[in-house]
């Protein structure tokens, strides 16, 4: 028997991952990856310390919410995140109990309270800050700020890392997996082409929508965290389309966002802002903000096109690379699905990696396909409406798409006055269930046989909420 001590086993190397972009998508992807790898987030700008606007987020000052499908993904990815946000002023709002909404077919929804859907509502600044604080505290995550990714390392078969620049210095960051979460301005198509891959198929549906937003202090009659979201959606068949939304956020403030399609774009003018609100299909938003104190100037944006890149359909895909979030698809923000898709995509990434080691051949391709599923669900919902605006797309809606739109209009009409049908519709709108949920008995039976309450002819505000109206 030998007296020599047993040889120490060399520690196995933990995989490494690089996430391009410190966006919400990048942060959630990094959180998902910590279970499997050491993660470096490469961010081109300096991230704020607390709730403050971040460069590179054109929609940050406009109205935001996270659908219940995203809230559930938050709970799975980062347990306790949602209560933390609520503790700092965010609200979990009942949909439809805490929502006064007119659908695109000009029907007001009744405020049924039996549905289980809860949407998270707050400013984008607060949402980003709390997620950032939570994720960057993880010991497996390193943040490199003021650093720009120049190119991918590797070849058409495998990505092995990235080449980055910080100031005047260039260096390489090796990685077993590179995740591009750099948003709408992603350079992934160009990077992949330089590696020898074919061009990715892209599609754009642009309704020409422009946004104007102003922050208000809520009137005294609407403080205390109980006032509903008020939403007047544009009607695709009535062009140019105009819509608007009031989102009550932390510290008794309202984010008021107005939107208009080509020929009816809202301007960055304070006086015009209220006039535009009064031109909507219903004057309720104008009547509410007339008595509210403005806290900011009007800010505008036109970066609202639906744009998708079909990476999952490329005939070849390199190992060690995947693309997430707005770098794959950006949506018209009026539908509020971007952050929900980001959270669900990060969750899909984690779910797949729990079943397949990160370095297993073919994993990157499976990741790209798995994360495309929530993208497709949101894309179909957005494009199904926006494709009907003049000039939105070179490809007119197909017969099956027109038929589906008529069915969805009928489903909305039914759900607006039947709680059972509403629950099914919200399952789809919140990205909790696929669109096939619309063809189940919960919608089909009320649609065909009722009973159905009569349509509402005015926004369903309560008596106490009506005290905030200032009618001319």
Describe this structure in words.
The protein has 472 residues and is of the alpha/beta class. Among the domains are: 16-64 and 123-205 and 305-385, FAD/NAD(P)-binding domain; 210-304, 2-Layer Sandwich (Alpha-Beta Plaits). The chain contains 13 helices and 20 strands. The chain has helices at residues 24-33, 68-77, 81-87, 124-136, 188-194, 270-278, 284-289, 338-355, 363-386, 399-415, 419-429, 441-449, 463-466, and strands at residues 16-20, 38-42, 91-94, 99-102, 118-121, 141-144, 148-154, 159-166, 169-174, 177-180, 202-205, 210-217, 229-232, 242-249, 253-260, 293-294, 299-301, 306-309, 321-323, 329-330. Strands 4, 12, 13, 14, 15, 16 and 17 form a seven-stranded mixed β-sheet that branches. A five-stranded parallel β-sheet has the order 6-2-1-10-19. The longest helix has 24 residues, at 363-386. It is globular, with a radius of gyration of 24 Å. The protein starts with 15 loop residues before the first strand and ends in a 6-residue tail after the last helix. Mean pLDDT is 90; it is low at 1-11.
